[in-house]
Structure formats: C-alpha cells, structure tokens
Write a structure and sequence with these properties.
The structure holds 2 protein chains of 2 kinds. Chain A is α/β, with parallel strands linked by helices. Chain A folds into 2 domains: 2-88, Rossmann fold (3-Layer(aba) Sandwich); 103-299, Rossmann fold. Chain A contains 14 helices and 9 strands. The longest helix of chain A has 19 residues, at 254-272. Chain A starts with a strand and ends in an 8-residue tail after the last helix. A 3-stranded antiparallel beta sheet of chain B has the order 1-4-5, covered by helices on one side. In chain B, strands 2-3 form a two-stranded antiparallel sheet. The longest helix of chain B is centred in the middle third of the chain and has 8 residues, at 54-61. Chain B is elongated. The chains are: A alpha/beta, B alpha+beta.
Chain lengths: 326, 114
C-alpha cells in the first residue's frame, strides 16, 4: 500500500493495520510534520512502514515542488499526489489508500457513532449537538452520521457542527464545486467545498486538518443545510485544549482541540441562555506527540493561521472543468 | 436509579459494531459524481482499480445501508474498541454551565487517534 499522512495519525493507524495484515506500506508524510513531529515517523517505522518526507525526490510530483523550494513545507494535497503516483506507476503491485475524504473512509469511521449511540443510551441522555473537527471530514462523519440517521429516520433533532481551522476554512470560505483531491491533479475530481487544489495552507499544528477540500458527503450535507460549520483560530484552539487538559486530565491532539473549542463555546452559550444542552464531541486523538506545539503556545508566542481574500480570488474559475451533462 | 456522577460509559467487546453505516443510503442528497482527472469524463471502475484496492471501490459506491465488518477487522478492533464515552463533569463545573458535555475518546486506540 501507499498513503499520505499529515500530522501522522492516519499513517500510524494504517501502518499498524498493514503490519497486522502482512502488507508493506509506504507513507508520504507532509514535510512540516515530518520535521515537527519526528516521533510520529518512529511510530510508523516501529509498525514496519517506510516513511518519506513529502515533497520527496522519489516522485515526479515531489521533485517538481523541491525544484521550487528545497525546504518546502508540503501539504496533504502534495503528499496524496506522491502516494498516488507511486501506486499508479507500480504495474498494479501497489495500491493507494486515502485517509479521509472518500465515502469508504467515512463508512469505516461510523463505528465511533454507533458505539456512542449505545453509550448515550447508557447515560440516559441524547445529544442536542454533535461536534467534530474537520480536515477531510472523517472523524466528524464517524461520530455524526449514525446520529444524523436518527434525525432522518427516527425524528431526532440533533444539530451537527463541523469545526475547521481558520487556516483551512474550506466549508466556511471555500467554493462548492468540482476539484482535484490532490495538488498535482492526478486523483479523481470530486464535488466538494474547496479552497483550490493549489492552496498551500499556513503550517498550523493541526496537520491533520491542513487539507484544501472536504468529504463530498459532508460537503453535500452542509450545502443542504443539514450540518453547520464554524472556523476557529489556532490560539483559541490551544487555549481550549489546555483548559480541557487541566480539567479532565487528557491532553488532546491539536485537531481534537478544535472540537473542544466549539464544545466549550456551546456550553458557554447554553449558560448565557440558561439551557440544559447535551453536547457530544469527538476527542479524535491524544496529543502526546504534539508537545512541541503546546510548548510553542505556552512559551513562544504561537500565531494564528489565516487566509487572505486574495488567495481565494477567482477560485471558481480556477477549478477544473468536468464534462458534466447531469 | 441513575448515578448522576457517572463519568465513563463503557461497552463490552460484544458491543463492537458488526456493521459500518453508509450515510449515502439515507442522505436526502444524492451522491455526487466523480470525474477522471485526465479526461474530465465520469470516472470508470478500471481507472479507479489502477489506484485503489477493489473492495474499497465497492464500498465507495455501495448503496447498502449497512456494510458488514469483516471478522478479521473486528478481531483487531477488540484490541481497543469499544472506546470510552466520558462525561466531562469537571469541565462543566469549571465553565459553570448547565450543559452536559460528553466526549468519545478515540485517543484510546493504539495509534493514538480515530
């Protein structure tokens, strides 16, 4: 198998799975994370995977980016292109697995929500709002979709809130159209909220969310008004992550801290309105391999990621034109 | 009687789901088409097979509401699933909110995340 990974969580998960099923794995890890989170690489290697910083000299795509800039920070879009290129040119010997975005990834993640449905029942409560962070949409979908089914089939009225970084605000500031899933334009074109496949996000610490697009299912549900979205600033995210760690003891991944930010804001809003609101969020991962990010927040003046309007100018004209008759 | 202070809500191994849920089966919004990046025409199964394992392509386009989870995969899930659902009592107190805050802790997986 070949795959991409941002902060390294998906790469670690697939490395473990490949080891247990006796499959070799090559991981293209976004360079910003490869340098910033070296222990993630060690985990993947421990599970038996080969890990390359992306852009890498191993692919045409990688070389084209390295020619422009040797210390290129990379992006999920570029890493996907590299992993796909290796699979496409392997004469069928290697296959590619994507860590988010596609329908089958959302499908696999629904074990989270199916379990949570039973557990909320044990608690004798039902969520008024379900919250998850979104990059490509997989952990959010995994928790939300079984509860959304209950809305559609059994008359529940839960709200769904997808939380994205202000550095990659595909739902809240992107365009809904057909776009490449990767930077080189070699993976299938999907209908999604996108910032453009050439969009290079600021190197924020939530590497798992640094993606230009969004799951087509999440995009369609958002466009239909069935889910809500909000973008949050990196510093406010770490503030929430630290508040959570101090109260609950669990040190969250920066990605998950986006969901915590929104959950805290919902809880404060409930207080303002004197409402007993039941909030359920996905703590998608721990942050033990993100300590340098916490260190930066605590001691070195972390900055917020941002997107200027000019980066998004003429975006819809830049999207690929598909031959669509429907 | 329900214990108002209960913090962790735990399931048994036998509660590990046997099916994945396919949102597309119930979504009021039809799945959107996928296009070939080279030809810009609707993508074919052959083009997808160059890149992806066949079972994943089948799962990508399935219209079944529930897709059975292979037993070999459930065996691996047993190493860490079901994950805990936890009520954040202490955070609620700190925020002085009437809201009840629950979280699903996917950081319990060996790889550290969902």
């Amino acid at each position: 198998m070949t795959t991409e990974t941002g902060a390294g969580q998906w790469g670690s998960a697939l490395a473990m799975a490949c080891q247990m099923f006796g499959i070799d794995l090559e991981v293209f890890m976004v360079n910003a994370s490869f340098l910033g989170k070296p222990y993630r690489r060690v985990i993947m290697e421990t599970y038996g995977a080969q890990v390359f910083a992306s852009p890498s000299p191993r692919t045409k795509t990688g070389r084209s980016y390295l020619e422009k800039r040797l210390d290129h920070p990379g992006s999920l879009g570029i890493a996907i292109s590299e992993a796909v290129e290796v699979a496409a040119e392997s004469d069928g010997k290697k296959k590619y697995g994507l860590g988010s975005v596609l329908n089958h990834v959302m499908l696999h993640q629904t074990v989270i929500g199916e379990e949570a449905l039973k557990q909320m029942d044990l608690a004798g409560e039902y969520p008024d709002v379900v919250i998850g962070c979104v990059g490509g949409g997989s952990n959010f979908s995994g928790l939300a979709f079984p509860f959304l089914r209950e809305n559609l089939k059994n008359g529940q009225r839960t709200r769904f809130l997808a939380v994205e970084p202000t550095a990659t605000p595909s739902l809240t500031r992107g365009t809904y159209g057909f776009d490449y899933g990767d930077s080189a334009g070699i993976v299938p074109i999907l209908k999604m909220y996108t910032l453009g496949s050439d969009f290079l996000p600021d190197p924020i610490h939530a590497g798992g969310l640094r993606y230009h697009g969004m799951s087509p299912i999440v995009s369609a549900l958002y466009n239909a008004g069935l889910i809500e979205a909000v973008a949050v600033e990196q510093r406010a995210v770490f503030e929430a992550g630290i508040q959570f760690a101090r109260a609950e003891g669990i040190l969250p991944a920066p990605e998950s801290a986006h969901a915590i930010r929104a959950a805290i804001d919902e809880a404060l809003d409930a207080r303002e309105n004197g409402e007993k609101r039941v909030i359920l969020f996905n703590l998608s991962g721990h942050g033990f391999l993100d300590l340098s990010a916490y260190d930066q927040y605590l001691h070195n003046g972390m900055i917020n990621g941002k997107v200027s309007d000019s980066q998004l100018d003429g975006l819809s004209e830049r999207l690929p034109k598909v031959h669509f008759s429907g | 009687m329900k214990d108002q202070d209960q913090t962790r809500f735990l399931l048994h191994e036998s509660d590990i789901p046997r099916f994945w849920y396919n949102m597309n089966a119930d979504s009021p919004v039809a799945p959107t088409p996928v296009f070939n990046p080279i030809t810009k025409e609707l993508i074919t199964k052959d083009a997808l097979e160059v890149l992806f394992p066949v079972p994943l392509i089948e799962q990508e386009v399935t219209t079944e509401r529930f897709v059975p989870i292979p037993e070999e995969v459930r065996e691996i899930y047993r190493l860490y699933r079901p994950t805990s659902l936890i009520r954040a009592h202490r955070l609620e107190k700190e925020l002085n909110t009437p809201a009840h805050i629950y979280f699903k802790f996917e950081g319990e997986s060996p790889a550290g995340s969902h």
